[in-house]
Amino acid sequence: MASYFRPTELSQALAALSECALTIVAGATDYYPTQVGRRADHDILDPSAIEALHGIEAEGDYWRIGAMTTWRDLMDAELPPCFDGLKAAARQVGGPQIQNTATIAGNLCNASPAADGVTPLLCLEAEVVLQCRVGARRVPLSKFILGNRRTVLAPDEMLTAIEVPQHLEQARSGFIKLGARSSLVISIVMAAGVLQLDGAGRVMRAGLSVGACSEVAQRLSVLEAALVGQVPIGDLVKPEHFATLSPLDDHRGTAGYRLDAAVTLVRRLLEELSP
């Protein structure tokens, strides 16, 4: 029979993970749909009562987002402009019930190609903190997700925080999502961007990414480099900037449609972020 463990201290959770195989379930908004029609046979670790995993705060050179932070917590937090894109993504994650329950960390650990949080966090150069009983390691988000539903998280580890460098605080940021309808929808394509501009409105630093167009969301490094020193306008975006993408081909859209949509979304995004 499956067991359920709800510790109040992080040390208790990490000790339990070191001793046996446990499924970490926080908001459970991704977990429960996968269990429909199945017998509950997973031993569950529920970290929701661990106070250290909650909240968003500035800590040293980073903004720290605790693993139990929900999308609603993020939307309600007073954060610098660089988080505007992530907040825009949060407003499009399901409906209010999902936003009040689902965690940002869970969105990353679920590792769906269409995970709304991954794309804007890639642009923010986010890292994830992975802890086990004997220590912790920091992994760039770009290296954390290996593929569809696959991450580098070891069986005895827990993602305890997401860290975003503070040097991007005043950058402009945005997020655009294309779906079959305007809300409560899985993305066909999504795009996110973070731009640091000089006094003349030219790009000093760019972070652009596209999600749901490959098994893992991708930064557009060639386009980012091409934008430096330029006023960000949509005409600068060329199809060849998307050559690294491997668009999915499924019932939501063909690979060709997704690629065309990605180009269009990034052009729109740059126009929105332009001064």
Task: Explain what this protein looks like in three dimensions.
The structure is a single chain. The protein has 275 residues and is α+β, with helices and mostly antiparallel strands. The chain folds into 2 domains: 50-167, Uridine Diphospho-n-acetylenolpyruvylglucosamine Reductase, domain 3 (2-Layer Sandwich), CATH 3.30.465; 171-273, CO dehydrogenase flavoprotein, C-terminal domain (Enolase-like, domain 1). Helices cover 26% and strands 24% of the residues. It contains 9 helices and 14 strands. The chain has helices at 10-19, 71-76, 84-90, 96-101, 104-110, 118-123, 141-144, 221-227, 255-273, and strands at 4-5, 23-24, 44-45, 56-59, 62-66, 127-132, 135-140, 145-147, 150-151, 158-165, 172-178, 189-197, 203-211, 218-219. It has a 5-stranded antiparallel β-sheet with strand order 4-5-10-6-7. A 4-stranded antiparallel β-sheet has the order 11-12-13-14. A hairpin with a 5-residue loop joins strand 12 and strand 13. The chain is globular and about 55 Å long. It starts with a strand and ends with a helix.
Largest sheet: spatial strand order: 4-5-10-6-7
Helix content: 25-40%
- The number of distinct structural domains comes to 2
- Characterize the biggest β-sheet: 5 strands, antiparallel
CATH architecture of the largest domain: 2-Layer Sandwich
Mean pLDDT: 94
- Tally of helical segments: 9
Instruction: Output the CATH topology of the largest domain.
Output: Uridine Diphospho-n-acetylenolpyruvylglucosamine Reductase, domain 3
Strand content: 15-25%
Task: List the uncertain runs.
Answer: none
Please identify the top-level CATH class of the largest domain: Alpha Beta
Taking the alpha carbons of the first and last residues, their distance comes to 59 Å
